[in-house]
Amino acid sequence: MSTPPEEKSPDSLRNVKHVVLILSGKGGVGKSSVTTQTALSLINKGFNVGVLDIDLTGPSLPRMFGAENKQVHQSTRGWVPVNIVIPDVKHPERGSLSLMSLGFLVGDRGNSVVWRGPKKTAMIKQFLKDVYWSGPNGAPIDYLLIDTPPGTSDEHIAIAEELRFAQPIDGAIIVTTPQQVATADVRKEINFCKKVNFKVLGIVENMSGFICPHCAECTNIFLSGGGLALSQSLDLKFLGNIPIDPKFVEMVESQTDKNRLIDLYDDCELKPLMSGIIDKVLEQNCPARF
Ligand SMILES: Nc1ncnc2c1ncn2[C@@H]1O[C@H](COP(=O)(O)OP(=O)(O)OP(=O)(O)O)[C@@H](O)[C@H]1O
Ligand code: SF4
């Protein structure tokens, strides 16, 4: 018997090899920053990356990538994401980056979206189905990163339902902060992954210490090490710590068309740390979707 059309894997993911979700129990722990840096790291390792910003309450990725004024358009194959990084002769080792965010559709960043459950769910499902993902010249997207809203809400259930037909997906990176690891939110997020059968690729402890802008020394202003302890107690992989680096925020704010985040990030103290974190994800050798 053939599969009913609504139960097919979303066509938009046909050209996507790996899907990774970025989750956090609470807002403001740096999920979007970790998504951004995961994307930058993967590009620097030569992968073609797609980023889907599904955080409908506060889509922040267009701002992080300095693309707030860019526009998406529709083609016969679906929404065409914004090209943030395309291969260039100066950096042949880099991959590409394309971004789709609700922020491009609602425009003004102050125009926050206050949709009720069913409308949100419908939007998320449409986002997963209707974006035409493709690398340069039709090359496959190696990694699609999905930046989800914080918590385990209706939106997450919608994502899980939609991705059920897009297996195998690699799984989820859980972002926490040193203060948050002791709370129930992270455990809830991990239980959610178990329930919907998403593999936890590992835990990242963000805002773990502070890099001094003067001497680059890292000081633990809050307790550190909770992320590692939590991973050990739940038998999950600990991917690493990312300290607060005021220069990272400065880089995000100082981008221009000629001075892009991908270039500025080369001088960021967080770059090698993030590279090590991503290596720990890659070494898990998750099977590609095709
Ligand atoms: N390691 C870091 N170093 C410096 N600044 C950081 C770091 N992580 C996050 N930030 C900053 O903290 C703020 C909140 O981070 P971010 O937007 O990534 O969090 P979030 O969890 O995605 O939030 P939300 O739930 O609102 O989407 C941003 O201004 C970001 O630039
Ligand atoms: S780490 Fe402390 S002592 Fe060193 S430069 Fe920074 S603020 Fe000053």
UniProtKB/TrEMBL annotation:
Cellular localisation: Cytoplasm
Tagged with keyword Transport: no
Alphabetic keyword roster: 4Fe-4S, ATP-binding, Cytoplasm, Iron, Iron-sulfur, Metal-binding, Nucleotide-binding
GO biological process: iron-sulfur cluster assembly
Residues involved in [4Fe-4S] cluster binding: 212, 215
InterPro entries: Mrp/NBP35_ATP-bd, NUBP2/Cfd1_eukaryotes, P-loop_NTPase, YlxH/NBP35
A Pfam family of this chain: ParA
Chief location: cytoplasm
GO cellular component terms attached to this protein's record: cytosol
Entry GO MF terms: 4 iron, 4 sulfur cluster binding; ATP binding; ATP-dependent FeS chaperone activity; metal ion binding
Residues forming coiled coils: none
Binding site for ATP: 25-32
HAMAP family listed in its UniProt record: Mrp_NBP35, NUBP2
Family assignment from sequence similarity: Belongs to the Mrp/NBP35 ATP-binding proteins family. NUBP2/CFD1 subfamily.
Function description: Component of the cytosolic iron-sulfur (Fe/S) protein assembly (CIA) machinery. Required for maturation of extramitochondrial Fe-S proteins. The NBP35-CFD1 heterotetramer forms a Fe-S scaffold complex, mediating the de novo assembly of an Fe-S cluster and its transfer to target apoproteins.
This protein's name: Cytosolic Fe-S cluster assembly factor cfd1
Organism: Scheffersomyces spartinae
Biological classification of the source: Eukaryota, Fungi, Dikarya, Ascomycota, Saccharomycotina
